[in-house]
Amino acid sequence: MFTNKQYNRLISNTPVFICDSNVVLYKLSVIENFLNIHYPNYKIAYSFKTNYSFALSKKIKDTKLLAEVVSQKEYLLAKKNNFSDNQIIFNGPNKDLSKISDLIKKGVTVNIDNFSELNWLIKQNISGEIGLRVNIKIKKMKLSRFGFSLEDNFKKALQLIIDSKLKLSALHCHIGTNINGPYAYKVVAKKMAELVNELYITKGIVIKTIDLGGGFPSDALLPIEYEELPTSIKEYLSVITNELNKTLNVKDKPSLILEPGRYLVDDSVKFFTKVIDSRLLDEKQVLTVDATMNMIPTVWYKPQKIKVLSQKNDIKNVFKTTIFGSSCQENDILFKEEFLECKKDDILIFYSMGAYNSSQASNFIFDAPKEIVI
Question: What is the CATH number of the domain that holds 147?
Fold first, then answer.
């Protein structure tokens, strides 16, 4: 139970995101402890776009994670937080072409996404090590629009690199987000390992790093189209390391890179918002809070875990409830299920709000909420 002082402080600061970095550090330790045993040659990269406040905190720098960025803006944010160039992985389909060659020379791992980027580098007669994003077909999953298809145009891209001054040293594959189950990672790990073997045997190309991206779910409720519960991170890591250890047939196994942004930060953040109006209409509860759906955009596509924080200890009534945001939009709905009775100035806590909420929150009508990392 919060003290009156703590409660009043929250009321005066809502809406606000609170990020508990200890949760992030614990979840990181779960990955590290597993990989230290099963695939010690690894590195973990934090996806900046997942949550910028944590990306810019001293906490993440102290973890010695790599920085995974997808734009020049994010690259500059990484530099602002004192990441050295050899600690930065640059992904994404829209890189500033005028900057790519300089990034490569500085030692940034640049994973080329498309022929426009690749052809520009070749035309500029650029030399240096690069990575390629690989697109792999996986049963029952939509084919990604990013990267070079392993079954289609990867060989063309590879030949262009061989005929140029560029050197392929890294492979990257990110299959999506909230991948609920390890099967897809088993397929990807196996095919990427086979590709490493093939490149060495047929072309003499030594791949130094395999980056399998992210997509691992958090403990949050999954999007509406999912029926299953999230799978333990150890199950994902197990199928990945098993396939790599079993399939890789090169003297020096490449370093494994993972980008578990959502998994790391989602459960560490709670969102606090205050009830500014409460009413009962036909035995249904209608609440309005001082936040909007534009502040926490994941409410658009997934159900929420919410708790009421009230100074009253005798809350027992439950009503069919709609929680509205405070914008002028009729469809500004944050929650619609049965919920405990609430009164004005009660505080609602939304759980697992760390991934893609604060980084996508807009300034529509109200300023985007603050985020505090503790």
Answer: 3.20.20.10
